[in-house]
Specification:
Keywords: Membrane, Transmembrane, Transmembrane helix. This protein has 109 residues and is mostly helical. The protein has four helices and no strands. Helix 2 crosses helix 4. The protein is extended, with a radius of gyration of 21 Å. The termini are far apart.
């Protein structure tokens, strides 16, 4: 094991610690104000509803070249990927529209 491997594992650990801390610290802070925790919960529920709608409208067809090695893609996996892609597209469009509306409001005011 050389220095590159050690630094790679250290960076993995730091990313993991950062992810855990970035999730837990706002939760600890929101215990002082339960209404903020309710807003967070509603946001998570909204994203889950959007995902399930996207998952239900996505197709599950798989081309023959993706059914074998190295992909081994199944119809269920294909539908999951399709649902995640549609969810990402919708959230990206919502974010871009939000940015444009905010900038117009700033310009008007």
């Amino acid at each position: 094991m050389d220095t590159y491997d050690i630094m790679l594992y250290v960076s993995y650990a730091l990313v993991g610690i950062g992810a855990v801390v970035s999730i837990l610290m706002p939760l600890f802070k929101s215990l002082d104000d339960p209404k903020s925790l309710l807003k967070t919960g509603l946001g998570i529920v909204a994203i889950l509803v959007l995902f399930f709608v996207s998952y239900s409208i996505s197709g599950n067809e798989v081309l023959p070249k993706f059914e074998s090695d190295p992909f081994n893609l199944t119809p269920a996996m294909s539908q999951m990927v399709g649902g995640l892609m549609i969810t990402t597209y919708v959230l990206t469009i919502v974010a871009l529209v939000g940015i444009v509306v905010t900038e117009f409001n700033k310009a008007i005011n």
